[in-house]
Design a protein that fits this description.
The chain has one domain. 21% of the residues lie in helices and 44% in strands. A 5-stranded mixed beta sheet has the order 1-2-3-5-4. The chain is elongated and about 50 Å long. The mean pLDDT is 95.
């Protein structure tokens, strides 16, 4: 059986690149040395097995961050809004798994310690189960 969090991450990255935000195709899990802005990073998370009487699946959380060097928060909020619209109660096709539920749990906005970079921290939660 394949890892549901890996299948989820692959589908999320593909959807983010196709989203048409100001970040465009600048979607990374490791930012390249060229350090482009604006950008979206797909970072850490966790997977918790859900094993109940009639259900076997995985609850995954994944952090998605939007980054901008535009003055203030408007651009990063625009990117976060597009991410929420695409993923909250949305659907994805996953390799080897079925997506049962997908929600944006929180979006937090902050200024990075460099004083120049705006950031949106987005927590996505998904419930998946293996395809039969």
């Amino acid at each position: 059986m394949s890892d549901p969090s890996l299948a989820l991450q692959g589908a999320i990255v593909a959807a983010l690149k196709a989203l048409g935000t100001p970040a465009g195709a600048n979607v990374f899990d490791r930012v390249p040395d060229s350090n482009p802005f604006p950008r979206i990073t797909v970072g850490g998370g966790q997977s918790v097995p859900v094993d109940e009487d009639c259900y076997e699946g995985t609850e995954s959380t994944i952090q998605i961050d939007a980054w901008s060097r535009e003055v203030g928060f408007p651009q990063v909020k625009q990117i976060a809004s597009a991410i929420r619209a695409r993923f909250h109660n949305g659907d994805l096709t996953l390799s080897g798994h079925t997506l049962e539920l997908m929600k944006i749990e929180t979006i937090a906005y902050e200024r990075d310690s460099d004083g120049l970079t705006s950031r949106a921290r987005i927590q996505l939660r998904a419930l998946t189960q293996p395809k039969d």
